[in-house]
Amino acid sequence: MRELDCLFDPLAAADSGQTVHRIHAVSADDLAAFLAGLPPGQRDFLSFTGFAAKTGTTVLLPAAGDGSMDAVLGLGQDQSHAPFGALPFALPAETLWKIVSPGIDPALSTLGFCLGAYRFNALKGSATKPARLARIDAAQDGMDQAWAICMGRDLINLPANLLGPDELAQEVVTLAQRFAAVCDVISGPVLTENYPTIAAVGRGSVRGPRVAILRWTGSKASDDAPLVSLCGKGVCFDSGGYDLKPSAGMLRMKKDMGGAAAMMALAALVMAADLPVRLVLRVGCVENSVSGDAMRPLDVIRTRSGRTVEIGNTDAEGRLVLCDLLDEAGAELPDIIIDAATLTGAARVALGPDLPALFSNNDDWSRAVVEAGTVVHDPVWALPLWAGYDHWLDSPVADLNNVSSNGFAGAITAALFLQRFVTLSQNWVHIDLYAWNERTRLASPEGGEVQAARGLFQALRKRYNFALQAF
C-alpha cells in the first residue's frame, strides 16, 4: 500500500530553496473579475489564448515579476473535485504548486489533484511523473479519501498472477495494521466448514480461498456503539468456471475483486475519520477456475445458513461468495450491512459503467446513500428488490438456484438471491458496481476504479459522526 507521491511538504520545500508556483482556480462566473485583477501582460496573454475557464482547462501564464510561474485552472460550472484532476499532468513534471485562489475547499481540490495524479505504474520501468501539490493540514480529509481510493485502484489494477486469494487477504491484514485494527485470515478445513459456498467457488483453483475479517472500534465508540458490517466480493480472477467466459469476457476479470476493493476503501475512510462505531470488514478472497475439482452446473451446495443452492451457472459465483459472508454478518446484529460486488453484467446494461446499482431493504438507507453520493459526486442509482421476481430463483431440487429461470432482470434477481441471506429486520445495502474506467477523464484515469465508497462514507458519516435523528 503506497503513500500519495503527488504531494509535498511546503516547509521542507522552503528549507531546501525549491520554488513553489501558484495555481489560480477560476470558475466561468468569476472569470471577468479574475482577468481584471491580473497584471496587463498576463491578462492580455489569457485573452489572446481564448481562455474561457472551461472545466479542466489549464494554462501556464508568463512569469510574474518575482520569477515564479503561475497557472490558471478553469472550473467551468463544475463544483466537484474533478476539475483539479486535470492539473498533475498538465503542469510540468515534478514541479511544485500551491492553490492560492480564495474560497477553494482545500480538501476538495487535494482530492481531485491526487485522483488525477494516479497512474498504475508499479510494473513499468519508467513513467512520467506528475506535478506535485502542497500538503496542508486543512486538506486532511481529502488526502484520506484520495489514499483510500488509490489503494483500491492499485488492488483492482494488479494482475491476477500477482494478486491471488492469499495476497488479497494479506492486503486486508496490511490495512488492519495501518489503523491498529485486528485481522484474522481463515483458510483450509476451517474455511470449508464455516464458509461452504466460498469453498465451493474456490475449489477449482490451486490457489485456495481465504476469508479475511478485520475488526476495529473507534476511539470514541462504546462497547454498544453501532456496528457497521461490510462484505466484499474478492474474486481475484473469474474464468466463469465450467460455464466458461469467452476470451473477450475474461480480459478484465482481474477486476472481479472490485467489490472487495471498494469495501476496503470504505473501511479505510471510516477508520481514518475515527467514526464512533464498531466496524467489521469481511472479504471473501477466491479464484473461480476450471479443473477436475471445480463445481459443476447442477451441483447442489449447502450454504452456511443451511439453505441449499443448485448451481444453475458456475459464472454466477459472486453471489455464492457473498451469501456466507452476509449470513455470518447478520448473526452479529449490526446496525447496517453493506456489501459490494462486480456482480452482474445486467446492471451495466441498465445503468452503464459509471453508475453502480443500489439495492436496499430499507428506503431510508437507500435515499441516504443516493443523496450522499450525489453530494460528493460519487453517484449510485437505486433499483428495486422486486418481490414478484423472487420465484424465478426456485429450484426443483434445492431451496433455490443461483440464477433465475429466464434471462430477465439479472441485477434484480442477483440481489434477490442475496436478500435470502439477510433477515427482514436487518438493514442492508447492496452495491452492484463495475470497478473500471473505460477511458481517462479529469480525476478518473483509465483502469481500476473504486466506486460508491466515498458516497457510502458520506452517508455513514452523516448518520454516526453527528447526533442526527434517523434520516
UniProtKB/TrEMBL annotation:
Keywords: Aminopeptidase, Hydrolase, Manganese, Protease
Family classification: Belongs to the peptidase M17 family.
Listed name of the protein: Leucyl aminopeptidase family protein
Organism of this sequence: Acidisoma cellulosilyticum
Single biological process term from Gene Ontology: proteolysis
Organism superkingdom: Bacteria
Single GO MF descriptor: metalloaminopeptidase activity
Ranges where the Cytosol aminopeptidase domain occurs: 313-320
GO cellular component, one term: cytoplasm
